[in-house]
Design a protein that fits this description.
Blueprint lengths: L8 E6 L2 H16 L6 E3 L4 E3 L5 E6 L13 E5 L7 H12 L4 E5 L7 H9 L12 H4 L4 H10 L2 H9 L12 H9 L3 E2 L9 E6 L6 E9 L2 E10 L4 H11 L3 E6 L14 H7 L5 E3 L5 H11 L3 E4 L4 H9 L2 E4 L4 E6 L5 H16 L20
Parallel strand pairs: 1-4, 1-5, 5-6, 7-13, 8-11, 10-13, 11-12
Antiparallel strand pairs: 2-3, 3-4, 8-9, 9-10, 14-15
Length: about 375
C-alpha cells in the first residue's frame, strides 16, 4: 500500500445512491465536522479535508458512471447486492495505479460473487477475512435473538444473523431450478461442439448493459456455452465480440424493440447490425415478463451451463428476484430491476425464442467453407 498522499481519494459505495446517503452520510458528517477547516458538500455527498484528501459516497446502480475515478481506498457496503462488474472491471483498475485498498462488507446473499470473493480471500495471505455471527458477537442480546428467530424463517434468520450463504436468495425466481441443475451436475464444463450451430440471445441495453447468451442445441439437450455482458459500448463492439469468439453461428435472437427505428439514424438496430455483417437475425415474440419467466422455468431441466464461461450469467439468474414492498412487508409481483436484470432478460428471450422458433438441429459435419461467424 502506498503512503497516503495529501490528495488521497476515498469512496463509500452502496448498491444505490439513495442507500449510500441514508446509511453513511450522517456518520461521515458527524465524525468529520469537528475537524477545523473541513468542507462538507451536501449536493455531491463529498467531504474535503484540510490536507486535500476527499471522501465521497457513490451508488452502484449505474456502474459505468464510476469509470475514470482514481482511488486510494474504497468501502463496498452490501457487496452481495452489487454487480460483480463493479469491482472487477471498474474499481479494481481505479485502485491499481495508487496501490489502494478495498474493504467488502455485507450480508450473505446465496452463493454469488460475494461468496466467491470470501472463499478466495480465505486462502490468500494478502487478505484479511472476518465473519461476525450474531450468536457470537453479543451485540444483539439473547432475548432479541429469540424474538427474531420466532419472526423469521430458519433460512432468513441464518442468512441475516448467522452469516449463512447456504440459503437461496429471498424472492429469487429461479432458485429451485438452479438448485436442481447443481444437484444434477448440469452446471459444469460444457464444451463447444463445432458441428452444431450457436444461436445467440440478446438483451439490448440503451442506458444499461447489453447481455448475450450463446446456446447450442445438441440432441435433446440445450447447452449454454458462453455469456457476455458489458455496457456503454456501440453495436459494432458486440459484433466484433461475436466474431472473436469464433463460433459457427446460426441465428441471432433480439427483443422486439430492436426493430424500432431510431430518430437520429432513421434505422433500426436490426438494420444497423445487418450493415455490420450480422445475418440471420430474428425477433423474439413479445410476451409478458411473467410468461417469459415461466418459459425459462419450463426449459431449465434441459439446460446445461458452462460453469466458467457462464459464471456471470448464472450469477444474474441466481440474483433475479421479486421486488420487495417495504410498506406491506411482502414481495411485489414484478421483478426488481437491478444489475441482475440484463442477463436474466436475455435468458428469458432465450426461453421464448427457443419455445417459438428454435428446433433441435441434427448434428452434422461441416466443411470449413460452410463455417461463418455471422451465420451460415
Amino acid at each position: 500500500m502506498r503512503s497516503q498522499a495529501s490528495d488521497a481519494r476515498f469512496a463509500y459505495l452502496a448498491p444505490t445512491y439513495a442507500q449510500g446517503k441514508a446509511v453513511a452520510w450522517d456518520y461521515l458528517k458527524h465524525y468529520s465536522s469537528p475537524i477545523p477547516g473541513v468542507k462538507i458538500n451536501e449536493s455531491e455527498l463529498r467531504i474535503e479535508y484540510p490536507n486535500g484528501s476527499r471522501i465521497r459516497i457513490y451508488g452502484c446502480d449505474n456502474p459505468d458512471s464510476l469509470r475514470g475515478l482514481y482511488l486510494d481506498g474504497v468501502v463496498f457496503d452490501e457487496y452481495a447486492l452489487m454487480s460483480p462488474r463493479v469491482f472487477a472491471e471498474i474499481i479494481s483498475p481505479a485502485l491499481s495505479d495508487r496501490k489502494g485498498w478495498a474493504i467488502f462488507i455485507g450480508t450473505p446473499w446465496g452463493h454469488n460473487h460475494f461468496y466467491d470473493l470470501l472463499d478466495s480471500a480465505q486462502t490468500n495471505s494478502d487478505w484479511l477475512t472476518a465473519v461476525y455471527k450474531a450468536s457470537e458477537t453479543g451485540i444483539v442480546d439473547n432475548d432479541e435473538l429469540a424474538r427474531l428467530r420466532e419472526m423469521m424463517s430458519v433460512q432468513q434468520y441464518n442468512q441475516e444473523l448467522e452469516c449463512s450463504f447456504d440459503g437461496a436468495v429471498q424472492g429469487a425466481y429461479y432458485a429451485e431450478q438452479i438448485e436442481k441443475a447443481e444437484l444434477d451436475k448440469r452446471i459444469t464444463a460444457v464444451p463447444y461442439d463445432s458441428r452444431c450451430e450457436v444461436d445467440t440471445f440478446w438483451d439490448l441495453g440503451m442506458n444499461d448493459s447489453t447481455a448475450i447468451w450463446f446456446v447450442q442445441t445438441v440432441g435433446k439437450e440445450v447447452h449454454l456455452i458462453d455469456y457476455y455482458e458489458t455496457s456503454g459500448a456501440a453495436l459494432e463492439h458486440y459484433v466484433k465480440t461475436l466474431k472473436e469468439r469464433g463460433y459457427n453461428y446460426g441465428r441471432h435472437f433480439l427483443p422486439h424493440d430492436a426493430e424500432v427505428r431510431e430518430l437520429g439514424t432513421g434505422k433500426s438496430r436490426v438494420e444497423t447490425l445487418n450493415t455490420m455483417g450480422l445475418r440471420n437475425i430474428e425477433i423474439v415474440p413479445k410476451l409478458s415478463i411473467e410468461d417469459g419467466i415461466e418459459a425459462l422455468r419450463a426449459i431449465f431441466s434441459k439446460c446445461w451451463f458452462d460453469k466458467t464461461k457462464c459464471k456471470d450469467g448464472l450469477n444474474a439468474l441466481k440474483n433475479y428476484r421479486k421486488e420487495w414492498d417495504e410498506k406491506r412487508q411482502t414481495f411485489r409481483s414484478r421483478p426488481l430491476h437491478d444489475w441482475a436484470s440484463n442477463g436474466s432478460d436475455a435468458a428469458r428471450y432465450f426461453a421464448v425464442g427457443y419455445q417459438e422458433r428454435v428446433k433441435p438441429q441434427t448434428v452434422k459435419q461441416l466443411h470449413h467453407t460452410e463455417l461463418s461467424w455471422m451465420g451460415a
